[in-house]
Design brief:
single chain; binds magnesium ion; 16 strands; binds zinc ion; binds adenosine-5'-diphosphate; three-stranded antiparallel beta sheet; 3 domains
């Protein structure tokens, strides 16, 4: 988008729901689909006289992300109460971190730019109000009360909607790799608020920002930002001023509208949480977590290039999703070194095509890595051609039971009689048949129209139901045409 004289300044606040088994400050389960108000106890319901106890795993998880995003880790941090009233918040306050977040001053690298991370802090989620059962009543489900969240606040370093989604997808990839969040935006495991202002290109001073709450997909982030950039630019062009507001986004009309004027920190009357002790993170704990961090996407991609000798483009595509990278490595286990590139091609094209078409995750993909490697070996050994392999692959996809022997490509090749013809006598007789049936084309070929060879090869391939080795057909056909006389 070209805004002429103006350019956007963007900062993201992302909430990620942590995959801990129990809640942040009590033993209740964090299970997503439990019946309403069953995962609750006096602590997360905020009954008087109860005391919260911090879940150590939550600290461990936030440290993983903090260390992976180059943050400084605060060795002693505290929790704060953020006070507000809402029906889905029975305590009347949210336990959060305020002026002493555990991680701060990090960055994330995207496509050559560094986006600063101001802070990452721990907090608890609220419950859920449900309005769609009746027009008169609202219901409340408190299962989500106290579910652990971390909030990742970026510096206003993002310069376009495209960069905002790049940052968000990098962050999503990272939390999934670190195994701390499932990254599911539809289910709300990852929620994004965007802050956006517009300023004159030649000015150093930032404009007044608006915050758009709860954008639950990459598309909504892009569309909301684009709309808001246009709206704010128009306000400024008319000589007006942008009002500091909190906005909501409507995906249907693709427009934003004001929710409320922006509350300030003092509206929340933050104060240190008196019921929780300080969080201590010593060097030993930091070192331990650092040494146990899983291989991250860039490192994995680098290793793939070295270990499998595949182009870095392939390595990057394959490592986007940790589970796909694992699948690829599984396939590689079953094939020879010479077929690693073929394995990469199969995963990047045929496997990803099916995942896209059927909106599947690789975890739900029907062909196991072992069977795909057997298929690749059949091609490498010259037993089937690439085209036949596609046919076999389509058959494999029809078998929905992963353990079914019938999904084994060797079984399919045998049953459907698809083995490539290596017997040249058989190919030869097919060639002779085609030569006899196409005297005109043969004549023209002999008179110099060499491109007709392809036509004749095609006919022979068809005659052998695609089972002949195309190279053998090509060679034999040339030889036979050279010596054959037309009858
Ligand atoms: P607030 O006090 O309104 O909460 P913060 O300074 O805490 O604002 O910043 C919240 C988010 O807004 C951060 O992600 C930050 O990068 C971003 N931000 C701050 N100032 C601007 C601005 N002028 N334009 C766009 N984003 C901004
Ligand atoms: Zn509880
Ligand atoms: Mg703030």
């Amino acid at each position: 988008m070209d805004n002429g004289k103006y350019e956007p300044v963007i900062g993201l606040e992302v909430h990620a729901q942590m995959k801990t088994k129990s809640k942040a400050f009590c033993k209740c389960s964090t299970e997503y689909n439990a019946p309403p108000n069953t995962n609750v106890c006096p602590v997360c319901l905020g009954h008087p006289g109860t005391l919260p106890v911090l879940n150590k795993n939550l600290v461990e998880f936030i440290l993983r992300l903090g260390l992976a995003t180059n943050c400084t880790i605060r060795d002693r941090s505290i929790f704060a109460r953020k006070n507000y009233f809402y029906p889905d918040l029975p305590k009347g306050y949210q336990i959060s971190q305020y002026d002493q977040p555990v991680c701060y001053d990090g960055y994330l690298e995207i496509e050559g730019s560094k986006i600063g991370i101001t802070r990452i802090h721990m907090e608890e989620d609220s419950g859920k109000s449900i309005h769609d059962f009746s027009t008169d009543d609202s219901l409340v489900d408190l299962n989500r009360c106290g579910v652990p969240l971390i909030e990742i606040v970026s510096e206003p370093d993002i310069k376009s909607p495209k960069q905002a989604t790049e940052y968000l997808s990098k962050l999503k990839q990272l939390v999934v790799y670190l195994d701390i969040c499932d990254g599911n935006m539809e289910e709300g495991s990852l929620r994004c608020d965007v802050n956006i202002s517009v300023k004159a290109k030649d000015s150093k001073k930032f404009g007044t920002k608006c915050e758009i709450k709860n954008l639950n997909s990459f598309k909504n982030v892009t569309d909301a930002l684009e709309y808001e950039i246009k709206r704010q630019t128009e306000v400024l062009e008319k000589g007006g001023g942008v009002i500091h507001q909190t906005m909501t986004y409507d995906a249907k009309s693709k427009t934003t509208s004001p929710m409320r004027s922006k509350e300030e920190a003092h509206d929340y009357r933050y104060f240190p949480e008196p019921d929780l002790v300080r969080v201590f993170v010593d060097q030993e704990w930091k070192n331990k977590i650092k040494s146990e961090l899983p291989e991250l996407p860039e490192q994995k991609a680098e290793r793939f290039v070295k270990q499998y000798k595949i182009p870095s483009y392939d390595a990057e595509v394959l490592t986007q999703d940790r589970a796909i990278a694992d699948y690829f490595e599984n396939v590689c286990k079953g094939v020879g070194e010479k077929s690693f590139k073929a394995a990469s091609n199969w995963v990047m094209t045929e496997v990803m095509r099916v995942l896209n078409e059927e909106k599947l995750e690789i975890a739900d993909f029907r062909i196991n890595g072992k069977n795909l490697s057997i298929l690749i070996n059949l091609i490498a050994e010259g037993k089937i051609s690439n085209n036949i392999a596609k046919e076999v692959y389509a058959e494999m996809l029809k078998i929905t039971d992963l353990s079914d022997e019938k999904q084994n490509p060797e079984f399919i090749v045998k049953e459907k009689n698809l083995l490539q013809l290596t017997d040249s006598a058989e190919i030869e007789s097919a060639i002779k048949k085609i030569i006899n049936e196409n005297p005109n084309e043969v004549k023209r070929y002999k008179n110099g129209e060499t491109k007709l060879l392809g036509f004749l090869v095609g006919k022979v391939m068809k005659e052998t139901s695609g089972k002949a080795n195309p190279k053998t057909v090509n060679d034999l056909l040339k030889q036979i045409l050279l010596i054959s006389n037309l009858r």
